[in-house]
Amino acid sequence: MAVACARDYAWLRETQPDLAEAYCLSYVRGLSKAAALGRLGVAERDLRSLPIAEAVEAALCAEGRPPMTVHALSVNGWTVIVEPTGCRVTRPECYRTLSAETELVSVRVLMGHRYEFRWVIDGVLQTFFDARAPQVRRGTRPDALVAQMGAVGLDGRTPATDPGAAVLALADRVTGVRIRSSHLAGPLLGAELDAALPMAQR
């Protein structure tokens, strides 16, 4: 497979513009879909086939807080968790649980406001940054991904043309998982979450 560049993820804004406005996409290595969702507090009895498009539409039509849903798919040994109306994985207590004895990469986009990237191994945050200021990094290994960041246009010298696509391309390089539009087109295993957690700050 070719090494990912930001343009490889231009399809998200082109084909699913409503989802591209706000989402959280998290990759967990070695867990089944049910196991990964279980670590987020989803009971197996609550799992069902749940189209992302319906969740996005429900959020757009909601007068108050939108219904919180979580969806999962498996690609190349990783489970990819999609949160179209929330960002539960970005909570420290959640990413620590999800990454226990394994590895997690998470991308959170709130278009125009946040373009966050997290890399976590066994509960420890390795690298965190926002693509609006990629030179400002936190974690136990803040510089571990500098070369890959530069390759996708996140060198900090010039603003990324599409920072959301750039952080997805970086996640692709770290995990080896290429997400395509077809992965998000049909119903996925998922569930409604009981309640939204407060917005994570880091």
Structural overview:
- With 202 residues, the chain is of the alpha+beta class.
- Helix content is 26%, strand content 28%.
- It contains 7 helices and 9 strands, in the order H-H-E-H-E-H-E-E-H-E-E-E-E-H-H-E.
- It has helices at residues 11-15, 17-21, 33-39, 52-61, 92-98, 146-151, 163-175; strands at 22-29, 48-51, 69-75, 78-83, 103-110, 114-121, 124-130, 137-138, 187-192.
- Strands 2-9-3-4-1-5-6-7-8 form a 9-stranded antiparallel β-sheet, sandwiched between helices.
- Strand 3 and strand 4 form a beta hairpin.
- The radius of gyration is 16 Å and the shape is globular.
- Mean pLDDT is 90; it is low at 196-202.
Give me the count of strands: 9
Give the rounded overall mean pLDDT.
90
Proportion in helices: 25-40%
> Outline, from the CA principal axes?
globular
H/E element string? Answer: HHEHEHEEHEEEEHHE
Q: Give the uncertain stretches in residue-range form.
A: 196-202
Across the major sheet, the strand order is: 2-9-3-4-1-5-6-7-8
Identify the quaternary structure here.
Answer: single chain
State the major sheet. 9 strands, antiparallel
Tally the helices: what do you get?
7
Backbone structural class: alpha+beta
Q: In angstroms, what separates the terminal alpha carbons?
A: 32 Å
Radius of gyration, in angstroms, nearest whole number: 16 Å
Strand content: 25-35%
